[in-house]
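Problem 12. The chain below contains 226 residues. Write out its predicted structure in token notation.
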Amino acid sequence: MDKKTLEGKQSDSEIIGRRSLDKATLDKAFDERFPAEIKKKLSKARVAIAGLGGLGSNMAMMLARSGVGHMLLIDFDVVDVTNLNRQAYLIPQVGVPKPEALKELLCQVNPYLEYETRCVKVTPENVAELLRGYPIVCEAFDAAEQKAMLVQEVLTQLKDAIIVSGNGMAGFGDSNTIKTRQMMKRLYVCGDENTDIGDGMGLMSPRVTICAAHQANKVIQLILES
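Solution.
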């Protein structure tokens, strides 16, 4: 596939054209749940999610349901059948680039938010170009070295950005060991900081989703407390 194809086969109008609720109806529903100031802050927020697997895809769904106005969705992979046990995707989306597949799901939750997709691998060389303009970056990679790279590069290259990282959510252990900790002024880490799939524990939907919820909740806190 060429870059244009990977960055999205379906136009926004095609996806939004399948909506069953108009914007006024969704806005009214938000107005019944959130004070106006909260809705306003969330609608203006800009959040980048790097990695659209178990953490990133579930996090994006939560942020869309909360009305976060603009999300950047980054991943270079396609949906695989092995993803279905913990990620937000559906069987008909197997083989579809993850940014495209996730955008389709998000548009079924709220088609009136802005979703920017990039099907590209994040490297130290493109971090600044990809993430500039996003004051909150969510790290949601699988590999430890990729996690460490993104945290380091965001903290060094993007002087004003806050990064919310996931670390430790494997297996089926105690949910209460998953916590959110502020590790540095601009770094928050969510997870138990211990369990790893290399220990033979595997990845299961409940703990992965709990960790994703911690990340999404911290993002909302940062938006509303700014």
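Discussion. The two ends are 41 Å apart (CA to CA). Students who got a different answer should revisit the alignment rule from Section 12.3.
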